[in-house]
Structure prediction request, 131 residues.
Amino acid sequence: MKYAKTLCLATTLGTLSSAGVQAGTLTVINKIPDQYIYLFIRGEGNNTYFTKVVESEKELVFSVEEEDVKGKPTFDVTASTNSGGDPDWKLMAGQCSNLVTKANHTIIVTATAGKLSCKNVTAKNPKENKN
Prediction:
């Protein structure tokens, strides 16, 4: 009987710990005064994305699950002050790429002359991408 309880407990703990590995936390800091930013998050190489909105000069923290990015191990974030629709919205957007789905990341979105930049300030992946 003790063996069965131990096995059950070990199985439960293993399941819980593996479920937690499937997601990372993304912290987005909007440094743009008087502008909401729209985030378009997708698994790298996918056309399908999900969106989030970050208020002006605020921080948003949320979980990125593998199912959100279609099972991809990495994802990218495109930040825009436009919610899409216009073919030129991507030209002024900033992008952070190569974000690992199972890791925690912090990105900062700023603007210069209307052009957004996205800077990944995560210690393990400190890349800045301006697109």
Notes: The radius of gyration is 18 Å. Residues 2-20 form the longest helix (19 residues). Confidence is low (pLDDT under 50) at residues 5-21, 126-131. Residues 19 and 65 are 10 Å apart (CA to CA).
